[in-house]
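Supplementary notes for students who missed Thursday's class. We covered one full example, reproduced here. Read the sequence, then the structure, then the short commentary at the end.
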Amino acid sequence: MPDNSNDFPAIETLAITITYGGVLTIIASSLAGQWSGQASLIVFYLVLIAPIVMGIIAYKNRTFRTGVNHRKWVFYAGALYFIITPIAGLLLVLFERYTQKA
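Structure (token representation):
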């Protein structure tokens, strides 16, 4: 099968969905106050494995930044992981400190 750059990036999209789903799961678990072993495994994935996966996705799709196609959005989702996740973590820490003082 020839490598066509216009093919839909199914594997990358699945990895992005799993990663951002994990971020949302951690946010929901923290806000609900119901931490579990599964949440700890998701944090392990988000801290150690997801940056590598998202970096590879962003690097692989960097040439598709210009243009209006789905690979452009895959690139942006991969690159924005390094901005969105630290901000979400910082907001959760601030929320925990605020609720402990109140």
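Commentary. The longest helix spans residues 70-101. Residues 5 and 35 are 42 Å apart (CA to CA). If anything here is unclear, bring it to office hours.
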